[in-house]
Amino acid sequence: MTSELQVLIPILLPLGGAVGIAFVGRRYPNLRETVTLVTATSLMVVVWALLPDLLAGERPSVRVAELIPGLAIEFQIEPLGMLFAALASLLWIVNSIYSIGYMRSNNERHQTRFYVLFAVALSAAMGIAFAGNLLTLFIFYEVLTLSTYPLVAHKGDGKTVESARTYLGILLATSIGLFLPAIVWTYHVAGTLDFLPGGILADNLTGPAVGLLLALYVFGIGKAAVMPVHRWLPAAMVAPTPVSALLHAVAVVKAGVFTITKVVVYIFGVDFLVTESSADWLLFVAAFTVIAASVVALRQTNLKRLLAYSTIAQLSYVVMAVAILKPLSEMGAAIHIVAHAFGKITLFFAAGSIYTAAKKTEIHQLRGIGRRMPWTMAAFTIGALSMIGVPPTAGFVSKWYILAGSFQSDNHVAIITIIVSTALNALYFLPIIFYAWFSREDVAPANDHGEAPLAIVIALTVTAALTVLLFLFNQPVLDLASQLGRITK
Amino acid sequence: MNLTEHLPALQVVVPMLMAPLVVLMRIRGLPWAVATATSLMAFAIAVGLTDTVIDSYSATYEMGSWRAPYGIELHVTRFSALLLLIVTGASTLALVTGRQSIDAEIEHDRQPLFYAAWLLALAGFTGIVVTGDAFNIFVFMEIASLASYVLIAAGSDRRVLPAVFKYLIMGTIGATFYLIGVGLIYMMTGTLNLADMEARIHEVGELRPILVAAGFITLGLALKAAVFPLHAWLPLSYTYAPHIVTAFLAACSTKVALFVLLRFDFLVFQQNLSAHELQFTIFLMPLAVLAILIASGVAVFERNLKGLLAYSSLAQVGYILLGASLVSVPGLTAALMHMFNHALAKGALFLAVACLGMRFTQLNLVNLSGVARQMPWTMAAFVLAGLSLIGVPGTAGFISKWLLISAALQEGALGVALVAIIVVSSLMAVVYIWRVIELAYFGDPPESTRPVSEAPGWMLVGTWVAALMNIYYGVNPALPISLAGGAAASLLQHLP
Lengths: 489, 496
What we know:
With about 500 residues, chain A is mainly alpha-helical. Chain A has 21 helices and two strands. The longest helix of chain B is centred in the middle third of the chain and has 30 residues, at about 160-190.
């Protein structure tokens, strides 16, 4: 049996950690980092401890407060949220190790603020993962936006603040302008906001209104970066690399696609959406985003911006997989959230590692860097292969399921999109890898650098290993994801 | 007779009798202590009355045992109780919190007069709310207004004088309009008792004077309530008034005028003028929408912190009116909830401003750059209350916005347009609150200024109590909802 407290602890624990970090503060940096690591590790332990009961079919829930009848703050643990929480809590540990190496070697300012807000963001991610209804989810969604803004604006100079404001502006405006009205509308027609297997809208809404409501959700959940609300993600590239990793892998964009998946599965209900032709547009928009973002990525010269556009494409993979509306593809969506997280965090760690050791940010500077930084570039290679979907990496597993789902429903749009985007991914990742390993440096670097600091190398090795391991041992993830599939049947 | 029965009278009498006594107190600190104790007592009475009306729906009191409609009748309903809580609560919290701020802004030998004016304002506001007599309302309105002018003019900034003069002129026009309207009704019915009026207008054959009276009363009270475009007096008065006075008045003064407006329109006129609810909607809804959009827009570009919050207040008056102009029980419930929640949010914000005012003479936004590093507790409370003003879930502001949107959605296509307006204006609120937050947290302090210290601990305690109430009533809104819901149902009982 899972007690009520166990459901709340994952949300409260990082908050407690944040207080602890702020309390220890700048005076004892080593102790402060210890607090971060201890909090992260214990978070993972408590989250993963919830797994057995969940797999046994339990759905523990807690109602914290009822605002007005039908409108409550409530938490419930279900497979998809568990997957997200388990992922985020695992990556937080690795990311913290990496952060310590990165922040110290680059002598960043405001390190205490950085760790405090990181912990708050994790608490928000846990809240999103375990939210039992849309209102609760929305609250933590906004907390996540607000707590990550100072992280994005970390450098604090004019250009950074400008970009961070784009980040904040788009995410807040879409969430308040579209997401919240969608929630109100849902409440108005359904009388509840609970996440229920099979959805809550089936008998309450028909016709074009369904498509419209879906549009409010998809574009209102700006964190999923479906075009045209993707601009904030490239803008957020001004952040320090550990923050990029937080945005792209640990919490933020994952929260976006997670929320869309959750809305489609538990609010609309897959069976209901299949019957509503007005909701078909989602597949096309997602497919368009996949292709368009990949094409834009092809034209980038800055490594982090390339990765950002790659993320946009990969996120829409998840959205597209959800929109195929087949059990196998829903499973694929859930797995892709995990697979992409492992691959993308590796790529960002590598990009940050290169920046830390060589101060290089542009793609054309990377010729021959594989010899100086073999660990980093090996990890980068694994991450890139996972993005393309080559075995033996995690990306292959999720693409397999998404493709299987597409074939289940003979969805030619999805099949063609996957093929084309795989080719495009290969086109922009393989040259980087090739030149890094097999060509010589044009000019010798100013400082004769080797690998990045040990903490960074450890972190990126771990995530690269995870990327491969998920290919080999994917049963736990499949078990969780298949429980989601079962509900949607 | 026990004391409970006299509570409606005591509510007004206690502050009114204490006011002249305070003038005589010349010992430093004593006027504040007595005024605070009096206000606290008024708050306790309001809580007692709330308790009564929740149990037995309403409490009436005949002054001097003269029976209505011949004597003056005090009538406390759930609606009055809600307002009484707002008025006495705001007054008490502002006084308890603000002693140091008042000491800093008002010379010692004028303080007895200041606190006397404060108690008179309190007596006036509570008097308007408890009385059931139209002329009595006028008298209390004048008491409250005159006292308010004095309180505002007590500010040390000389720019307050033209501002308060403008307020004086416009407030007097408003009161006069109201009096003309009441006079017309008296001419036709021969009564001043509100309940009696409603019955007697029934017997009036020629309704045109009543219609004119309705126009005068609505307009006069709209002026007092700073309904757009009759709001010109409010922003400057709030900006240059002493900070604690702004916290008190911003929380309650416009709402009291709206209280009278709603009572007249729904209790007196609704049943007697044909299609009154339609006229009410057609007249007030466009004004509400304009107030929301234009005032929010001005707030986005305002340079002075208090001015920014004052314009935001105008927009909030718009929300309250918008809910009321839907003329439905959910809409009115939302409007009354917003009265309560806006008082919580704005009260807390202005208390935080008072904390800032202890360290800054000018509250222009540029002066406040980077202040959060030096005054973290003040700014954290500001952020909390700001979130409530925006309507973020988990805060009190969310509850009333949610109710408002739900109520609007029941109106079909028009409702959807209204929801769009609410959403847009909420986004504007995000922008103007965020401007302050960004500057305070991420701006660099201007080089010329020396570092400031955190506000006095006691003021922070009061400010935080106000800020945390926004959270408490955001999670646990049962009490205000029951008051607002009951009030809305009884106000609209005459609706066809």
